[in-house]
TrEMBL record:
Compositional bias annotation for Low complexity: 32-43, 68-80
Stretches the record annotates as Disordered: 32-53, 68-89, 270-314
Protein name from the UniProt record: Rieske domain-containing protein
Classification via Pfam families: PaO (PF08417), Rieske (PF00355)
Lineage, uppermost ranks: Eukaryota, Viridiplantae, Chlorophyta, core chlorophytes, Chlorophyceae
Organism (species): Volvox carteri f. nagariensis
Keywords carried by this UniProt record: 2Fe-2S, Chloroplast, Iron, Iron-sulfur, Membrane, Metal-binding, Oxidoreductase, Plastid, Transit peptide, Transmembrane, Transmembrane helix
An example Gene Ontology CC term for this record: chloroplast
Length: 664
């Protein structure tokens, strides 16, 4: 994730000019550290020389970062007001009519199809003969075999492994081997039914983006819609996308739960205690959020030629709050729905940190998290190895060797700190939604209230009376202002996006089941009746929603390998090298063991001969076998130590349990 450090001169007062501007935006999860020089034009990259490995690894809260120096001009420094009409009712959001970040280009294999899932849609990504990345529905139109099991042929077409049908980049079928002759093949290929479903896709910022809609106007609608990324990221991009690296991890809980988590800075000192000096339980406390203050007008803003770097849209974020954070007492969270969360931490009149996070819905109960790391030059310092202890020295060496990998490991620590309880929370919420949906569709049941009375909910700490607000506002009790951004995100999803990306489909399925359940069971709103009666048919016999996970399930929830490493080119490469190191060290140990046996035997024989001949020790040639024995033993020990160290580090790429009770 990026952290951008910028100079800022009198931010609150100096913004009277800016284009249709809206508010500050940023994100939260990483580290940085360098004081900014005062001019943007200098383009100086701050050095990390002199910083501790811990600061290099994660100075704030999540794991990827970037650091750049510049001064903020007035338009960038203040929090502007949206242009007239910004607060007017906006159209309903359609989940499939949006540019979603799908997968970093570096994570893709160009010589084969790559399966990816988004919004419950199985997709296949492949590169055509022209070097362009294409995104299809992962189904062959012939008999629905997954195209991701196929091949990218030498002519640049995608072939289905089942019957060899081939498709070009547009989705048109170009080859049907089963056709009896060329004429019948041409006729079959000319049918629209022979085409694979293709989605609009584009590569920007080294990320593949997809518009997951295949309707006739999809291409035109996609072309007319901008990506939701910050101007800061747009400025930092270059044609090759080589100045930063993306982090991606699939997570075992719903998109809505991930979005709540990313918009909740108050949990950081508790969930991520010890990750950095700023994150400690004794530093947690009140974190009131207030809507950002408007400091300019649209008329004045229209005179500004440059939109703020934090903005992802011309009219600014969907909602924004100022708060007093652990990293800085002057912080702002800005959210551009549905997928981008940005944080700004102001550390002084000339210094601020910006961080940008992305949340993506994969499937019910599954989400995807993105952040990015900007490469910062760093010079090797032997002093680091002597002053920080073994662990810090190892982190420093890893940072010098591969800062991207270290940033990924640091991000894993943050995500692992939340994954177990967020997954359990997700189960509890899903169970409650299922119960409510069934109750609402059975005669005599308690109808689900869909009115969004935000004022009533806020007056009751976000947990309004049973008839006052949404189901979640009755489930959650949120009396503190620290949950303001969480409430705003949930309100946006309820009011503009149908409640959740998969809610409509889930309600359809549950409605069908409810009729059967209601015919056999009296569902009157009783939690006991629902849990022991109707819902038992919806739940696996051996699964209790909300139950603390056993060790096997914890390994699943916290599997760094399955959720990240096997997809990430940097981490998979380092894991392979570490495993090779372990194997090589084991081989060296075997050779050393053999050497010790030979040298020990030789030494014993020499000493035995000397003893039998009553020779003086000085006259016995024992030094050579003794040296061989000692050398073999020393090398065996060193190889063992290296193997143990490599094995320990390799586990960081596979699984690390995170037990909060052990984090003292």
């Amino acid at each position: 994730m990026p952290i951008t450090v910028c100079g800022r001169s009198d931010m609150r007062a100096r913004m009277t000019k800016c284009v249709g501007m809206h508010r500050l935006a940023t994100r939260i999860l990483s580290f940085s550290g360098s004081s900014g020089s005062a001019t943007r034009s200098s383009g100086n990259t701050p050095s990390l020389e002199g910083r501790s490995p811990g600061a290099v690894a994660a100075a704030a809260a999540v794991a990827t970062m970037t650091s750049t120096s510049s001064s903020l001009t007035a338009p960038e420094a203040a929090k502007p007001t949206p242009a007239p009409g910004v607060n007017q009712p906006k159209p309903d959001f359609v989940w499939t009519r949006h540019w979603w970040p799908l997968i970093p280009v570096d994570y893709l294999k160009p010589d084969r199809p790559n399966p990816v899932t988004l919004l419950g849609i199985t997709m296949v990504v492949w590169r055509d003969a022209g070097g362009r990345w294409r995104v299809f529905r992962d189904r062959c139109p012939h008999r629905l075999a997954p195209l991701s099991e196929g091949r990218v042929e030498s002519d640049g077409s995608l072939s289905c492994a089942y019957h060899g049908w081939r498709f070009d980049g547009s989705g048109a079928c170009r080859r049907i081997p089963q056709a009896v002759d060329a004429a019948s093949e041409a006729a079959a290929c000319s049918s629209r039914r022979s085409c694979a479903t293709a989605y609009p896709a584009r590569v920007e910022f080294n990320m593949l983006w997809v518009w997951p809609d295949a309707s006739p106007d999809a291409e035109a609608a996609a072309a007319a819609t901008e990506l939701v990324v910050s101007n800061d990221l747009r400025r930092r991009d270059n044609p090759g996308g080589t100045n930063f690296s993306w982090f991606m991890r699939d997570l075992p809980y719903s998109y809505e739960i991930l979005l709540e988590n990313l918009t909740d800075p108050s949990h950081l000192p508790f969930s991520h205690h010890g990750h950095s000096p700023a994150l400690a339980r004794d530093k947690g406390g009140a974190m009131p959020m207030k809507p950002s203050q408007d400091v300019t007008t649209a008329a004045a803003g229209a005179e500004s030629p440059t939109p703020p770097p934090q903005w992802a849209r011309p009219d600014g974020p969907d909602f924004e709050f100022d708060f007093r954070g652990n990293i800085s007492p002057d912080a702002t969270i800005s959210v551009h729905m549905p997928h981008q969360v940005m944080y700004t931490y102001r550390l002084g009149p000339q210094f601020q940190i910006r961080m940008e996070l992305f949340a993506v819905p994969v499937a019910p109960g599954r989400s995807r998290f993105f952040s990015f790391y900007s490469r910062i030059p760093i010079r090797f310092s032997p002093q680091k190895l002597l002053t920080g202890g073994v662990v810090q020295a190892a982190k420093y060496l890893l940072y010098v060797w591969d800062p991207v990998v270290l940033s990924h490991l640091s991000t894993h620590e943050i995500l692992d700190g939340d994954s177990v309880f967020l997954s359990v929370q997700d189960e509890v919420v899903q169970e409650a939604e299922e119960r409510a949906a069934i109750t609402a569709t059975v005669p005599g049941g308690d109808p689900v209230v869909t009115a969004k009375d935000a004022a009533a909910a806020a007056a009751n700490g976000g947990g309004a009376a049973r008839s006052a607000s949404t189901l979640l506002s009755r489930l959650y009790y949120m009396p503190a202002q620290a949950d303001a951004a969480v409430q705003a995100g949930r309100r946006w999803i309820e009011e503009r996006a149908g409640g959740a990306p998969f809610r409509a489909r889930q309600q359809q399925l549950l409605a069908g089941r409810a009729a059967t359940i209601g015919a056999a069971t009296d569902i009157s709103g009783s939690a006991e009746t629902l849990t022991t009666g109707g819902l038992v048919g919806l739940l696996a016999a051996d699964k209790v929603p909300g139950e603390a996970p056993d060790p096997q399930r914890r390994r699943h929830l916290l599997s760094r390998y399955e959720q990240h490493t096997r997809h990430c080119p940097s981490c998979s490469k380092r894991l392979q090298q570490l495993q090779q190191m372990v194997a090589a060290a084991a081989a060296v140990q075997k050779i050393c063991l053999l050497g010790m046996c030979v040298a020990g035997g030789a030494l014993s024989a020499v000493l035995a001969v000397a003893a039998a001949a009553a020779a003086a020790p000085a006259a016995v040639p024992w030094a050579l076998p003794a040296a061989a024995l000692a050398g073999s033993a020393a090398l065996w020990a060193v190889a063992g130590g290296l193997a143990a160290a490599a094995e320990t580090v390799s586990k960081m790429f596979i699984f690390q349990d995170h037990v909060h009770a052990d984090k003292n």
